[in-house]
What we know:
- The complex is a heterodimer.
- By secondary structure, chain A is an alpha/beta fold.
- Chain A is 38% helix and 19% strand.
- In chain A, the strands form seven sheets. In chain A, strands 14-13-10-11-12-15-16 form a seven-stranded antiparallel beta sheet, with helices on both faces. A seven-stranded mixed beta sheet of chain A has the order 17-18-21-20-19-22-23, sandwiched between helices.
- Chain A is globular and about 80 Å long.
- Chain A starts with 8 loop residues before the first strand and ends with a helix.
- The mean pLDDT of chain A is 92.
- Chain B is built from eleven helices and 20 strands.
- By secondary structure, chain B is of the alpha/beta class.
- The chains are: A alpha/beta, B alpha/beta.
- At the A-B interface, helix 9 and helix 16 of A face helix 4, strand 15 and strand 16 of B.
Amino acid sequence: MPKRTDLKSVLVIGSGPIVIGQAAEFDYSGTQALRVLKEEGLRVILVNSNPATIMTDPEFADATYVEPITPEVVEKIIAKERPDAVLPTLGGQTALNTAIALDKNGVLEKYNVELIGANIAAIELGEDREKFKGVVERCGAESARSHIIHTMDEALAAAGELGYPMVVRPSFTMGGLGSGLAYNEEDLRRIVGQGLQYSPTTEVLLEESILGWKEYELEMMRDKNDNVVVVCSIENFDPVGVHTGDSITVAPALTLTDREYQKLRDVAIAVIREVGVDTGGCNIQFAVDPKTGRVVVIEMNPRVSRSSALASKATGFAIAKIATKLSLGYTLDEIPNDITQKTPASFEPTLDYVVVKVPRFAFEKFPAADPTLTTTMKSVGEAMAMGRNFTEALQKALRSLEQKGSQLDFSPVPEWEVPELVEKAKRPTTDRLHQVQRALLGGASVEELYAATGIDPWFLDQLQLLNETAHEIRKAGALTPDMLRNAKRHGFSDEQIGALTHNPEAVVRGVRQALGIRPVYKTVDTCAAEFAAYTPYHYSAYDEEDEVGLHAKPSIIILGSGPNRIGQGIEFDYSCVHASMALRKAGYETVMVNCNPETVSTDYDVSTRLYFEPLTLEDVLEVIAAEERTGGVMGVFVQLGGQTPLKLAQQLADAGVPILGTSPEAIDLAEHRGAFARVLDEAGLTSPKNGTAVSFEDAKKIADEIGYPVLVRPSYVLGGRGMEIVYDEANLSRYIANATEITPDHPVLIDRFLEDAVEIDVDALYDGTDLYLGGIMEHIEEAGVHSGDSACVLPPITLGANVIERVRTATRAIAEGVGVRGLINIQFALASDVLYVLEANPRASRTVPFVSKATGVQMAKAAALIGTGVTINQLRSAYKMLPETGDGSTLPLDAPVAVKEAVLPFSRFRTLEGKVVDSLLGPEMRSTGEVMGIDKHFDTAFAKSQAGANNALPTEGKIFVSVANRDKRSVIMGVKRLSDLGFEIVSTGGTADVLRRNGIQATPVRKVAEGTSAEGEGTIADLVVAGEIDMVFNTPSGGEARGDGYELRAAATSIGIPCITTVAEFNAAVQAIEALRTYQWSVTSLQEHAAALLAATNSAKEAANA
Amino acid sequence: MTTPQTTATSSAAVLVLEDGRVFRGRSYGATGTALGEAVFATGMTGYQETITDPSYARQLVVQTAPHIGNTGVNSEDAESRRIWVAGYIVRDAARRPSNWRSERSLDSELVEQGIVGIQGVDTRAITRHLRENKTMRAGIFSGDAAAAPEKELLAAVRASAPMEGARLAEEVSIDEAYVVEPSDHGWEGEPKFTIAAIDLGIKAMTPVRFAERGVRVHVLPATATLDDVKAVNPDGFFMSNGPGDPATADAQVKLLRSVLDEKLPYFGICFGNQILGRALGFGTYKLKYGHRGINQPVMDRRTGKVEITSQNHGFAVDAPMDGATVAPEERFGRVEVSHVSLNDDVVEGLACLDIPAFSVQYHPEAAAGPHDAAYLFDRFIELMAGTRDGQTANLSKEPVDAKHPAEASQNTNDNNTEDEN
Lengths: 1106, 421
């Protein structure tokens, strides 16, 4: 039966900003969905607040709304666009929740909009714990056994049946308060006793513990004819207890017999039918008791998920694309398998390789956080690798993480350390894999570690195999062919072999290559070679037969950005994808190298060829060699994927690889302090006084010279890693002592810190002759807050024309001085009307997608073409990729205003005491994603950005204000305005006094430090937790009072109300709140904004000509 | 517990294909020489079921899944009394099995049963070679045998018997009949039906699937006669899967014709499908590289639904695809292709419209593989019930829609070509 003909237009809901647990994978799935819908001839409407996505590129939809994903806003879009249907299953939980809300409040019915790809009843059955338990039971399967109890006696009786350990969960408490694991009766009495008190309904759920069981997940698809297929099975290396997103996972499942696997499959199919997922994808998680094989269903997601993206990349089966087609009425057997072309999608992929995914964490950004891994996901990204066996895939995945200490360490383990390692491995943390492998290396047995960790003995034996292989490498004495071949089959890198044999990496590589021991590239084909594959999606393996086909034109290789991390996320993938699209359109063959399964760049449709490989020098050089021998390489782009490829630039050039765009020498000129200072000198530009130190003595001398406060940071980093503002010598000493990585190659940079400066960010293109200034972004927070965490606005709203002219001149001088060919990002600070240059990065920046969306000019595409020799002049005229005249610095006054706001993950991270970590912003970046608010004016654009970032500003209610002494003067106007608008102002201590003196009625409340009064009056933190405060405005005063502020901010963060910590942001919020109360919220698509901008530009031109 | 370190004791091994291609690896299982037809199987689970499936007799099986042996071997999952593969080709053999049901390692099981294997070879390269060049004879040589010059090894391979024209069912079948009782498989109460099942290489799960539905199964040797069949007073007649070339199964074709003449309901699986095809007067042919996997999509043309099936066949029935036709053996009336492979349009099932008989080329008993097609056992039970009640004498009154399900796809996969040999 072919597709439905009654659908003419569809609204797709995206997933919004990147947050932990909901990341780039939804851009990947969403982009596929939009492509399918367009190909099928539908009018496509999209809402997604995240500008750093490919899906929000205007060419992917007919109307692209970069607006907050809230039921109210989506209703406005529906009212305006009147789509026939809404597709909510490709935008994560955000989209699904929005769809449910629109159904509940009658909007879908009112506008006669059909939900496709999902139905509300199915979603509820899948998501409601109790209802889902019923589903599982009706399918003849089991959930974890549980009892609801109201007294201690009932608890003890239940314990008899459930056995210890047992999960105790008080009902209806906030954030899992009072939950715990009872290992014996004593624990049970204590935890249940507290739990009965905490629970407002005196109710506690007791559940059998499945901790330590084997964990599996099946990715499923179902069509309207009830055809069901399992796309992929995934096995968790870590047993139950660690969130799948935080676990090392393996595809396919490796430790099940067919009978056990088919049992999971049967249950999964029964559940998907019983839940009633009509069409599309879903996943189901299982726990299997390793002692008996008993199967317990954990949960299901009736939508495309993070695991579906992983499963798609792992198998080559494009789940999102196919789910979209199914939602239009196709059946699985009517959809061809892209890869084989001749066979249909109604089959189950079979793998002849092993896929390993490893999570990447960012605990170093949250030193106060407890690093224990739990069922709350904490990782910020992931890397995936494929190999012909588990050991090869695991080692490739670990080196893909590109994190210090991520690779296995085979140095000898002293005997005394072994019991300690075994003990530590009992608690799941980011270090567990290493602890287990090192304990085995030190002589612990597989049985001991199985008892300690619950990791399947087969996996433990594989780690043992790696240890044995390392031993053989070491004892080989020389780089013999047999040893090298064996080492490579188990994924050892040249670097690792070098370390084990005391040889430089380059020597190992030289010998290995001379011996002809090179990787071959296999193809991901969904069918284990049963049918020919037509998509060149490759992974390396040390095996016999190479499958890379000959290509007619020399290829252009684009190096991606690796796993997402704070500071290097989806924004860089955006630039890589754009480059590939632009270059392919210009007739080149492009090759993508990347190891991040969440991304659009690793969709096999994006580039001519895809190599799913780690981004290390060795792996990249081998890909280049493979491309060389099959048709030649024109050059490599290193400027698009962030710091990851950029740091390979020089080594690649040394190996004779042509670098496209900005040369490695130019890159070094910008990165190297001394050289860059000369560029600035020659251009007559100023930077804050600074110096470079490799020791504390150096650092002290420099700091004394330039004066405190100083900004200190390691060189060659992204995202402000380790960056701090240091106010005195004692703290400088502490900083240097803690900075372990200081070497003459990697010195510490020390800058004078400019207080109260306005920070300005610029993205520009330079071709050697002309400059195209993409956009000037004015930061809302003052300098000192990392640019990635700061909100910013484009075009700038408080910079005068002459400042803009100075920025423009400086940008041109730097681009020219450095020798940029392509993109450059420069950060300036304006203090006392002096323009300082903070830093310049000759590469795509985090803000390129924002600038592109805000101005309607796709800069990364232009940069890619500049890398091939096209000039800015040609891009303006022949290519029509840049405006004919003018640029981002000459936007007309009535151009739309775009605000970028960062999204921060504080609520995910808890201290050992269970409180959320502090939410203060600083020079070290901690945001995971961003949203854009765009409108005619700043106030409404800012309001939209806050709503998009899940921080919707209140329009009435109570606002708590407490600011540091230095800020008291500057907040009075704003607070007065809010009071006049009818807000109740609540305050403490000195701030309350100041406000009252200024005639503002401020209700006094108790400080956190004062504690609850004798009469039982709670503190401000209690009020916040009780939900009585609608917004918190608190600026930190440093020193003692910091603790008070922390409690308050933690409370606001944990219940999710806006918590403003800078005066600049507060003032913007006041403007926005006023606008929210005055104006109707209107929605405008990017396409409409672009048309308006064009009209404004033309009329400005006419006016100038007149 | 000692960790079996099988890799340490393995010796050099070589796989030689009939066309001269050679792959070198290490020995696995027993050492020595194994000759047979090289085929690849793509299942990611179920190696124990695979190696004990009698349909793999005289074949050297390449497992495309790289890790084999992870869950060891147990006494429940074997599909017959012994390992039938003639040789075993894997990439990474498990050093240590891990599963709560595991009793011993696959390696030791192979050694015990004298099955010669090879590990550490590029199984994907071998698979691609077989896909592009057809299944062919091959030999695994390990230990001392591997030391001989390649020329001699190749000569040995070329001297071995080809699969075409091989009559193997009698070799793998049992000598003595036995009965599988429903009460031993969870069925409560009296058996509903009794069938006679001819073991041409039957898998253990097949009688179990009948028994758990209340059907008593008399498993008879491949040499059984019509009298043997009648002796058990069956409500239905079944022919199993099995190895070899269906063109050699004249005895079974003859038996089936006589059963069909008796109007006894018939159900055949795999070899049993090919025999029905031949009994009706159709030919069979050898596929270029066969279907061996547990992910094979088949459309039931009656319902339009797709089932994911377990398959293991190198030969197929040559029957007209476009709707019901009168069988060449006209006395059996009309027949239609009821099931078709969505990968390459190979005939995957036959249904007679005027007599109570049907069969499928794939494995509804699974083991290994998905259970999607288990409904076929119920369909046979309905057929027997209908016949007994005198209500229906065939599967359906109306022929299915003749239109091919995947209308647009005219690009028949090149597996579905008659072998030139």
